[in-house]
Design a protein that fits this description.
41% helix, 5-stranded mixed sheet, elongated, 16% strand
Length: 235
């Protein structure tokens, strides 16, 4: 509130000068600020951080090879993020340890696919059919506040654990190249969440993957310096 105080001169003359003093009361403003601070503090406690769980490879090479070998060939999907928004994938493993069959020289083993909804998303939805619908139903119940977050996590874990018994359950290994962009990696990770993929990891690119990319695209930049010097015509 503001208050104006008027002071009149006491000289008795006809032309009296009036002096005005303006005084502003900020007490209501302090009360309002306290209410706003309390409101924002209360709302902040209700906000939950939206995080993305990413499975990263271990630094122990022995353990990493063991975990990789445990991935079933029928469910393994490897995504290779290439140059200029190129995306490739292959199913299974390039080298079968049981039969000794190798696909490193077969460019058709590596298949191109796009980041569009009718590309990678459609492919993953088809591979993750059944599990996707179950998890999506839980997400809808959680969004409608029909179940708490703890129940959602518990039931989701039960669905994913049961899905591991099926050898066709997809396990996606994401391998960015030096020529791919950060945006490409984020787009792929978004598709993992949209399609409800339960098992995926960001893994370092192996020499075999680099050679597959070279055989598919003819781009020598995918190869290591060692591979370039092995008679591939990329010196």
């Amino acid at each position: 509130m503001s208050e104006v105080q008027v002071k009149e001169s006491g000289d008795g003359g006809k032309n009296k000068q009036k002096k005005q003093t303006l005084r502003v009361d900020f007490t209501p403003m302090v009360d309002m600020n306290m209410l706003l601070i309390t409101f924002f503090m209360f709302c902040t406690t209700l906000l939950k951080p939206q995080t993305m769980n990413i499975n990263m490879p271990t630094k122990d090479p022995v353990k990493d090879d063991t975990e990789t070998n445990q991935v079933k060939n029928s469910g393994a999907i490897t995504l290779l993020l290439g140059e200029s928004n190129e995306l490739f994938y292959y199913e299974g493993m390039p080298e079968d340890t049981k039969t000794g069959e190798k696909h490193y020289d077969d460019p058709d083993f590596l298949k191109p696919i796009s980041y569009d909804t009718d590309g990678l998303r459609e492919y993953l939805l088809k591979r993750n059919s059944g599990i996707y619908e179950q998890i999506q139903e839980l997400k809808e119940q959680l969004q409608a506040q029909q179940i708490p977050d703890s129940i959602f996590r518990q039931k989701s874990k039960e669905i994913y654990d049961k899905a591991k018994e099926n050898p066709r359950t997809p396990t996606v290994m994401i391998k960015p190249t030096d020529l791919s962009t950060y945006e490409n990696l984020v787009d792929v990770l978004d598709e993992m969440l949209v399609t409800n993929i339960g098992a995926y990891a960001v893994i370092d690119l192996q020499e075999g993957d680099r050679y597959l990319l070279y055989k598919k695209t003819g781009n020598c930049e995918y190869l290591t310096e060692k591979q370039k010097n092995e008679g591939n015509g990329c010196k």
